[in-house]
What does this fold into?
Amino acid sequence: MTISKNTIKYLRSLRQKKFRQKYNNFVVEGDKMAKEIFSQKHIEIEGIYALESWITTNEKLLLAYRDKIFNISITELGQISSLNTPNQVFVVLKQPSNTPNYNQVKQNLSLYLDGIQDPGNMGTILRIADWFGIPQVFCSPDCVEVYNPKVIQSTMGAFLRVDTPVTTLSALRKALPDLVLYGATMTGENIFEKRVSATGVIVIGNEGQGISPENLSLVDQQIRIPQVDGSGMESLNAGVATGIICAVFRNV
It folds into this structure.
């Protein structure tokens, strides 16, 4: 099937958050992530827009989606793609419900992101969670949207395996009052010297402001990555800090 001008207009609109929310859809681009999607049973595919050569090469993978495949030209792909160099295939997916799994939180390590704004940081943190087997990354309502195309691309497929419920920290605390909340701050206890638990929630603050005062008041224990004497850096990147902290927690 080919696509109309109205379809192109609709697909281009999904670059904007308000239209992703209106249609409850999001976009994934590129050969590698598209193939990962086809192996996932919990993801609902609305449409696959791809070059004829890609469709032919992946014919066996696409058998279950014949009625959702659209054969498009390189020009049409360039019109709908948000990438500087469009990559063969453009897939539209339904947004999953991402309902918090509180039983899972009780039994595992989770992250809570407080106002993370940079799409690259969000994507990196989801990759870190995926690497360390952290199943849920909770996002405050003012975080950058997980379905932002830049976030999706930077996750390298981690969004398929890590759930990202949006909620307030106070709601999480209310649902699980016995949960231990660890807050990453500049003045907390040295994480390399502190005894931490294999379960709980690690709160990571905004890139510039850190954890908000409201959320910091809910934190049970503050932790920090110590700075070596002589370092001229004011702080660590949020993604880098998350990786170091998760490595310590997973080494318990």
